[in-house]
Amino acid sequence: MQKRARSSGAAAVPTFRELTIPAPSLEVTNDRPALSNLLVNAAPERLICSICTELCFPEPRQCLNGHTYHLECITLSLAHRESCPECRTPMTPDTLGRNLLAEDTLQGLSVRCRYHASGCTATMVLADAPAHERDCGFALCSCPHDGCEWTGLLHNAPAHLAACSLRLVRCCCGELVGVSDHPEHARTTCGSRLVSCPMCAAGDICAAAFHEHVAKCEPAKLLLGPLSAQVQALRTQVPKLESSIQASDYL
Asked: For labelling alongside 152, which of 27, 34, 47, 191 has CA 20 to 30 A away?
């Protein structure tokens, strides 16, 4: 009788590929400083809202005499008293006028980046600040993966996300698993892992197709064939045994 060859070497461990779906967005945790604290130079007094004492940005509005306010501030004020807080000229939300000169002047003010406290040294005109701050590498952010407590600067986030032990990966079998759980998944439950048949010693069999292999495996048929016949014979005896048990209980 020909001896069965033994498989040499361990079964291959499936690889995994990174998720192709977009990762959760990084959460930027910086609070916006007051705009007056970002100015490179002092702002003209006419651009200061006399209600909140901050720059009238955005949407500066003015009364008939030119007193300028934030739209939000003056709207709340007019809900209590329909007159200018400075000159008491009668006014309503419908009579508020845009201050085009103030709008243009505000947009041209030189400001520091809102993330200057984190190390950004950039300065720009106020009109360009949103575009810069959207991609500024000095924004403080946190990891989007559940359970990860990492926080850091935005320009350090790509390196962390690539190494985060809580990120999800997609195994070659198609299942989503945590990257730290993948080795155990690959050894035990992955349907794409390669296994060896213990009866014919054939190797490199996909675990998901193992039962199909056993059905065709000749050594398996020789070993399992008689056992299958015995199991089938026992199954035919089960109804008779159950009937005997019921009759015995009845008596």
From this structure: 34
3-state secondary structure of 154: helix
Confidence bin at 40 (pLDDT 50/70/90): very high
> If you ran DSSP here, which 8-state letter would residue 74 be given?
H
CA dihedral 207, 211, 213, 215 (to 10 degrees): 180
Give domain 35-126's CATH architecture.
2-Layer Sandwich (3.30)
Please name the residue that has the structure tokens 């006014």: 91
Claim: this prediction has a pTM higher than 0.70:
no
More confident residue, 5 or 164: 164
Taking CB atoms within 8 Å and a gap of at least 24, the contacts of 33-39 are 33/114, 33/117, 35/111, 35/126, 38/111, 38/112, 38/113, 38/114, 38/116, 39/109, 39/110, 39/111, 39/112
Are 57 and 35 within 8 A, CB to CB? yes
Nearest to 139 by CA among 23, 26, 51, 11: 26
CA-only gyration radius of the chain, Å? 37
